[in-house]
Amino acid sequence: MTEFDGLPTLRSPVLIAAFEGWNDATGASVETIEHLAEQWGAKRIGHLDPDPYYDFQVNRPTLTRDGDDKRQIEWPTSHFTACSPDGSERDVVLLHGIEPNMRWGSFCEDILELCHSLEVDQVILLGALLSDVAYTRPLPVSGTAADTAMAERLKLTPSAYEGPTGIVGVLQEAIAVAGLPVVSFWVHIPHYAAASPCPKATLALASRLEEILDIPVPTGGLVEDTADWENSIAELAGSDAEIAEYIESLEQQDDQPSPQPNGDEIARDFERYLRRRGGQSGGEPGTE
User: Which Gene3D superfamilies match (predicted)?
Assistant: First the structure.
């Protein structure tokens, strides 16, 4: 069930969505949503009713106080905002979600209902996974699309991954079945630098969105934050010869002519991540 006071009239809107949970290593994809919301002046338009979808012993509500020191309970849920980016002829709906604990089918139906009500004509899902990549190089962004023509237009390599999936995979399938154009983009984050946040990953996703949508995305402080993040990893490598040697080997692999990870490489990254999680199931790589 969606809870909205009234829906705005939007211009050929695109929905960009990311979800906290296993689909989002270091929180990079939801950080991208928050960055876009801040830079584009997004306004909240509603949220999903959390009661059917969340176990509140797992995703606990938060006690806060307002400006008058009045107590408030904030319930974990998925929020929608809308914005009109400068220089764009279309509007953008942003979804900062939380992977549900139950009733995933109904959850997807609620999102599709909103897409229909807002006349959304394209959906982009974001995710982040831990991978064997060099922090000194641009972080790769891979993608998947159910539609062959879209995959070819975006130069996406089909993924050979088979295994547990998260809400991003389930929602992408539901949207494709409903007949809406949908694509997902995944940023690959160094597994040896898995602490949150990872501004370089957020910058990589924002840059990919700017390229795909042809909408300017202001970087804000991401460039400076990325430099600080790289310096912190350099300090780590400087104090650990084994890590430094490993990073050097990744750099040498990166220097080979392979601009993007292919489908088999992405599948291996997923499988390696599952092994690092000790065989736990629950989603495509990310963090909880």
Answer: PAC-like subunit (3.40.50.10900)
For 78-92, the pLDDT digits (tens) are 999 999 999 899 999
pLDDT digits (tens, 9 = 90+) for 220-237: 999 999 999 999 999 988
DSSP conformation letters of the chain: -EE-S-PPP-SS-EEEEEEESTTBGGGHHHHHHHHHHHHTT-EEEEEE-STTT--TTTS--EEEE-TT--EEEEPP--EEEEE--TT-SS-EEEEEEE--SS-HHHHHHHHHHHHHHHT--EEEEEEEEEES--TTSPPPEEEEESSHHHHHHTTPPPP---S---HHHHHHHHHHHTT--EEEEEEEEEGGG-SSP-HHHHHHHHHHHHHHHT-----TTHHHHHHHHHHHHHHHHHT-HHHHHHHHHHHHHHTSS--S--HHHHHHHHHHHHHHTTT--SSSS---
Q: Domain count of the chain?
A: 1
Residue 285 counted as domain residue: no
